[in-house]
Every structure is written in structure tokens, then in C-alpha cells.
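Side project, low priority. Logging it here so it doesn't get lost.
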Amino acid sequence: MKATFTKGNGKYDKLIVERSDGSVESLDCPKQRIIPHDMVHFAVESTLSKRGFMARVKAGEPANFTMQGDPESDGVERLVEVFQGDAWSGGATPFPEMLDLYLVTCQERACSPFDLSIEDMQAIRATVEDLDRQWDQVPIGGSLSVIL
């Protein structure tokens, strides 16, 4: 699946997904000062080979905000939230603190956490940072595509 993020000039960016079966969907993504939320999903899911929002869309589920949770995608969502928070605060949160936050977030939302290592967290952050560098170079109206 090809996911193309287009930088908007208002309150939203846009995500267009093109599946291997030729179907295409688009979704407005609220701007959040860092890379789009679904781009963080890409970083987590592609790094850990986990099934979250992007993988579910690739498998044919609608690209919208009404997806029903499941254990694996719920664990992905909690981890995406942790990495968003880290990025919003400058991307320098110590990894043990991020892992602790992930465990607490999963516990509070009755979600089974993944067994993650510091190396996993480093790899995800490296992907987020790489995507952030690329996204910063995209002008308003320009796009960045990733393949899942």
C-alpha cells in the first residue's frame, strides 16, 4: 500500500491510501505541529511489523476514525500516543520513561502491552526523526509518500 501525505495550508493535512487492489481512499488529518498522526502509525507499524491502523487499511478496512479496536492495534495506538508525546516535547524523552509511560497507558486502557526493548524504541524514534526531517522539507501543497 502506498500512503501519500499532503501538507495542507489550513487545519488539516491529507492522507491518500492506494491499495494493491487499486482502491483509493483519502482522510483529512488534523495538523499537530509534528508529522501527521498516521505517519507516526507508519513509523511504529513498519518498524515493529505490527498490525495497527495503517496495516488494517492496507488489508481493506476503511481509512476512517471509526475502526473498532482489537488487541494488537490497541497496543499500536498506545505506542503511537507515547511517540507523539515524545515528539511534541522535543523527541528526547529517555527510553525507560517512554516504556514506563507505555505500560501505564496500556494498563489504564485495559490493553495488553507489547514486549518492547530499548532497541525497539530507538528504532522507532529513528524512523520518526527521519520522517520528521523529510516532512519539514515538504512545502504546503507538497506530498511525502511511504510504502507499507
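Brief comment: Residues 118-136 form the longest helix (19 residues).
Revisit when time allows.
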